[in-house]
Amino acid sequence: MVIVVAAVLLVGGAVTVVLLTTGDDKPTNTASGSTPVPPPQSGSKPPSSGSKKPGTGNVENKAEVEAAVTKVAQQYADAMNRKDAAAATQLTCKKVDPGVAYETAVGKFEATVLHVTIYSATRTTVNLGAKGVQTRGAPLPIVKEDGIWCVEV
Questions:
Q1: Is the pTM of this model over 0.85?
Q2: What order do you get walking across the sheet with 138-145 strand by strand?
Q3: Alpha carbon 15 to its chain's center
Q4: How far apart are alpha carbons 130 and 5 in whole angstroms?
Q5: Are 85 and 102 in contact (CB under 8 A)?
Q6: pLDDT per position as a tens digit, 19-63
Q7: Where are the domains of the chain?
Q8: Comparing C-alpha atoms, which of 119, 140, 141, 142 is closest to residue 129?
Q9: CATH of the domain spanning 2-22+55-151
């Protein structure tokens, strides 16, 4: 069981590295883009650095994003628990195979959804854990493509 969890965490870590080092190259901060940012006016307050939680990105509707992503993650976990590769495949973005997380962990433990991290309005990670095992879980990237949330594997 420990080896399985370690393998899932290793695969999840690799997926997270890929997720964080790839993605859309659209600038989200105009300070680094081509549009100049005016200097702060005297007497104006600098923006508070504690106004956003880390990992939430520039997302207006965090609750909606979290609910939608959690639903997809739960469906994927349920497919893993039923050993239903076809259902898991339909939840992936490419719809070619059920993905590395499924192939690594299916049938070895009962998958549970632990935590959602929102990086932007279209990129998130959900940690999947094993029922009855204390762990932070393995990250499962879920992205929004063409208006639909899907597992990026």
A1: no
A2: 111-118, 123-130, 138-145, 148-151
A3: 10
A4: 8
A5: yes
A6: 444 444 444 443 444 444 444 444 444 444 333 444 555 678 999
A7: 2-22+55-151
A8: 140
A9: 3.10.450
